[in-house]
């Protein structure tokens, strides 16, 4: 701990944003980083408390050694801070940008509502490491002669691939899409995380021996049996892609869409990919209503504003968070993980306790969304109905596990009660002893940081399966 009184003297400061009126004119990242000196001051706020909840079970899923790298940043040893950070997290520039930072919620200083700005510091360390050329391929000294097929190149598949390649195995990543990244590339918009961050990691991983096989849908283009026979182990990291269907009256009307195709189209457009439909979903000049309160919904809000929507209203079934001294008690101050995203701050109207009753239409097209206020059990309260004008509606209500058709059905692996691939968090092995599972495909829809953790831990379990022991960290 560098500065004993730092937390008493220095105010919390996070990275700033471009004003909303500027940032909605483009799709690029809009965070304005703090200077190195400012970041070092923020690191000095860390108390290195005796019980650092930030990296315990309630805090960081990858157990980043946060007090240690805060101290290193404060002491101006950024390269060692980067080494420390990379020892627990393969991709800190991803999480430094888009993690909801459960570490900050768990920070002891959050008792006073002013946690250490851990996420801002993490991004600063990772960005400095890249710009100073400290992030380089780390190929293994020796090869094991064992091979692993990884299906899916989202954060879980990428983290597992990097760990397994560094352990000396031959790693082939099969990806259905033309590029790597999973939801990092095709779900999450560039304004939250530009795709160049993924591209340079792919280059690093290729330098470590990982081979990427793009445009291959396993279960369709390649049979599961071929992979399971051809490799010593297989990792399923295919994500959780089956959208929840609310079965609303009027859902079939023109202008009502699932969120994902809209986000994927815009990401492909920004990435100059050509697989965009002839009549893409466009929010420009429209009144948009987004049904849902999570990250996917927020990303529809931000994307709609950037496409030129006239208005964007977001419907959230949860009650409005409490206010203290005019400050809405959203995350990290309110312990229910209620967050206000930068997209909502771009001018969205948020309706809380809003139960969607159905979609209203005229001549086959959507014209509005019928809602009511919900009670404590989220049931509509009679007499509270209202209609919101809409000519474009996005359904963003989450996902109910992996798509079963194709890979999952073909492999015959057992599923859990929620329809995810069944595998425990210790060994990550499925009902087929050669097949492992990690990330959203095993855990259900979650977060990037959990996908990285699961990829790392599954890699360690696979290494033990292949060689009888492992020096990989968990
Ligand atoms: P995915 O990222 O889903 O990757 C799975 C990959 O497997 C995909 O590339 C897919 O094409 C490939 N694949 C699937 N089946 C096959 C097959 N048969 N053959 C070949 N390839 C296959 N989390 C955060 O922490 N912060 C956020 O801000 C955030 N925002 C989000 C926004 C949106 C719109 C969404 C949908 C999710 C968001 N999340 C966020 C959640 C996060 O993106 C996921 O938890 C994470 O990406 C899961 O990683 P994964 O590797 O398990 O799966």
TrEMBL record:
User: Which of UniProt's keywords are assigned here?
Assistant: Amino-acid biosynthesis, Glutamate biosynthesis, Oxidoreductase
Tell me the ranges covered by the FAD/NAD(P)-binding domain, including all copies: 147-455
Task: Describe the location of the Dihydroprymidine dehydrogenase domain by residue ranges.
Answer: 23-133
Please give the Gene Ontology molecular function terms for this protein.
iron-sulfur cluster binding; oxidoreductase activity, acting on the CH-NH2 group of donors, NAD or NADP as acceptor
Q: Coiled coil where?
A: none
Pathway-wise, it operates in:
Amino-acid biosynthesis
GO terms classed as biological process: glutamate biosynthetic process
Quote the protein name from its UniProt record.
Glutamate synthase subunit beta
């Amino acid at each position: 701990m560098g500065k004993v009184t730092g937390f008493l003297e220095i105010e919390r400061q996070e990275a700033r944003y471009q004003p909303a009126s500027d940032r909605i004119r483009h799709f690029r990242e809009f965070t304005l980083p703090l200077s190195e000196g400012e970041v070092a001051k923020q690191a000095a706020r860390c108390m290195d408390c005796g019980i650092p909840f930030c990296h315990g079970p309630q805090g960081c899923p990858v157990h980043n050694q946060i007090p240690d790298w805060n101290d290193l940043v404060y002491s101006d040893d950024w390269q060692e801070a980067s080494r420390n950070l990379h020892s627990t997290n393969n991709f800190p520039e991803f999480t430094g940008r888009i993690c909801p930072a459960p570490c900050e919620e768990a920070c002891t200083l959050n008792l006073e509502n002013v946690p250490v700005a851990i996420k801002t510091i993490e991004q600063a360390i990772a960005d400095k490491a890249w710009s100073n050329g400290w992030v380089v391929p780390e190929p293994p000294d020796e090869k094991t002669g064992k091979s692993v097929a990884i299906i899916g190149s989202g954060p879980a598949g990428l983290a597992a691939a990097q760990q397994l390649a560094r352990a000396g195995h031959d790693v082939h990543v099969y990806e259905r899409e033309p590029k790597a990244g999973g939801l990092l590339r095709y779900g999450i918009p560039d304004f939250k995380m530009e795709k160049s961050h993924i591209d340079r990691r792919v280059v690093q991983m290729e330098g470590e021996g990982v081979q990427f096989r793009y445009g291959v849908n396993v279960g369709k283009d390649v049979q599961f049996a071929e992979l399971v026979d051809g490799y010593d182990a297989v990792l399923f990291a295919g994500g959780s892609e089956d959208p929840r269907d609310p079965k609303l009256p009027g859902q079939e009307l023109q202008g009502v869409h699932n969120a994902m195709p809209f986000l994927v189209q815009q990401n492909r457009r920004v990435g100059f990919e050509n697989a965009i439909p002839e009549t893409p979903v466009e929010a420009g000049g429209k009144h948009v209503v987004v049904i849902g309160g999570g990250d996917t919904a927020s990303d529809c809000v931000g994307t709609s504003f950037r496409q030129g929507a006239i208005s964007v209203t977001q419907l959230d079934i949860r009650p409005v968070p409490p206010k203290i001294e005019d400050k809405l008690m959203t995350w990290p101050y309110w312990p229910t993980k209620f967050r206000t995203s930068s997209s909502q701050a771009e001018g969205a109207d948020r309706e809380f306790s809003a139960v969607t009753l159905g979609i209203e239409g005229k001549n086959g097209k959507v014209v509005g969304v019928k809602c009511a206020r919900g009670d404590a059990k989220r049931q509509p309260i009679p007499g509270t109905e209202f209609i919101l004008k809409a000519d474009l509606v996005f359904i963003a209500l989450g996902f109910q596990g992996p798509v079963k058709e194709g890979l999952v059905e073909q492999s015959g692996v057992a599923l859990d009660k929620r329809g995810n691939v069944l595998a425990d968090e210790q060994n990550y092995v499925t009902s087929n002893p050669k097949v492992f599972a990690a990330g959203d495909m095993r855990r259900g829809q979650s977060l990037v940081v959990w996908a990285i953790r699961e990829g790392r831990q599954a890699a360690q379990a696979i290494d033990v399966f292949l060689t009888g022991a492992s020096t990989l960290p968990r």
